[in-house]
Structure formats: C-alpha cells, structure tokens
Amino acid sequence: MADKIHPISKIFRQWRVQAYLDFMWMTRDFKFCMINIVSDIILNLSGVAAVFLLAERFQGIGTWGTEQIIFMLGYAALVHGVMDMGFSYNIMHISRRIGRGQLDHILIQPQPIWIALLTEGFMPFSGSWSFFTGVGITIWSLTQIELSITFVWCLYFAINLLSSCAVVLGFSYLWGSLAFWAPVGAEEINSQTTRFVSQLRTFPLDGLGKRLQNGLLSILPVGFVAWYPSRALMHVAPPETLWHTPLAAFTFIILATLAFRKGLRYYEKTGSQRYLGWGHRG
User: What angle do CA 177, 88, 80 make, to 5 degrees?
Assistant: First the structure.
C-alpha cells in the first residue's frame, strides 16, 4: 500500500498543478495575455484612483496625509491581490458553489474539503496583477513616508496582511454559509459582501462616530481590510494595535468554520436542490 501523502505536501503539489494550468491558460495566446494584464492593472488602479485624487486635491483626508493615504491604498490593493491569487474560481464566492450544487464536486473528491478549498482557487499568474499593482503603490508610498523599515516591521506587515485576507475570507464564508439553508435566495450573497468590502476598503474611518466605527470593525469588518492595520503599521496607533487585526482574523475564521460546519451537517440531510426535479436549477 502506498504511503499516505502529508497534507502540507499535498497542498504544495496541488498548488503546483493549479499554477501550471493557470500559466498555460494565460499564455495560450499573446494578445489575450496582454489584454488581461493591461485590463487588470487599469481596473485595479481605477479602484483606488478616486480616493487618491481626493487626497491629492485636499492634501489628505481628515488626519491622514496624502502619503499615508497612498500607503493604505497600496495595502488594500495587496489584500485584493492575495485574494485574487489564492481564492478565485468561486472559492471566495462560496455561496455560488453551495447554491448551484457545485459543492458536491468537492465532496466526492478523495481529500479533505479544506484542502480543496485552499488549493482549487490558486491562480498565481492570471490573478497576480492586483498584487503587483499593490506592491508598486506600497513601495511608492514608503519612499514618501518617514518609516523605519526593519525586519521586524516587515514581519508585522506580512502578519497583518495575511490577517486582513483572513478577515475577508472569514467574513465571506460566514455569510456564504447561509446558502446551505437558502440556496436560491443566498446564492449570490457573497457578491454583495465582496462588493461591500471592495467599495469601503480604501476609505479612512477616523472621522466616523464610535458606534459606526466599531460596527465597521465587528459586524461588517471592512476596517480591518486596510484602515486599521495601516494605522498600526504607520505608527499612527499604539504599538499593541499591531496584534488587533490578527486577533480579528482568528475570531472570524473560527466563526466562519463553525457556521460552515453547521451548514454542512444540514446539507448532509437535504442535499442539493440542483439535482431534484423541482430544484431551481434542475
């Protein structure tokens, strides 16, 4: 009997396969490849241009200077880029897979569901241009801000960046789990949660009232996508706030895991309506 493959080794093997397939898809035609690259860069720049122009016109927004705003925009673009590279193909929009009955395609695979969800959406070539846009904006901002860039600071930056991505993913799966109980009504709920995060992630929230600010850091955690960790990384907030985003990420991942598992137990009893005669996509 063949030895069992360690889960970590399996993840890297499947990432390698996904990366190869993504590379072949992107490079099958030079014109197609260039159109994808240019359009993605333009799309991602346009997503942060409005806030940048406001900051440039008024020399900042609230207590934030223009350079600080640029850093936050770069951080937000990096979060968006990591999510595009790691969780495409409706892994981020899990409500679609559940509502359309496509979760069954994962459940019949001879591997844990968490490995499938962690590897199927890996698209490091076609999804990387948001990330590269964020890298460019962030580096540009760091040349304008007087920050001491040390190894420890870079480590904090990486931890907070991954934590912001985890908050987005946990928030998406927490709401997306509703599709287990309402596959028709909640099939596209992750489209709305993603749009909400995308539209508000680039705005500083300092001028908001405490109740609204707390709401955007808890019930709708858009503040943890860029604003809150950026404050900590630029030393606008006390040093201990560097760990608040990782703690928020841990909380949302736990809540999302509990909701998703509860939904799966319900799904075991009902199955997918897609394959029933009266199903909405039968």
Answer: 95
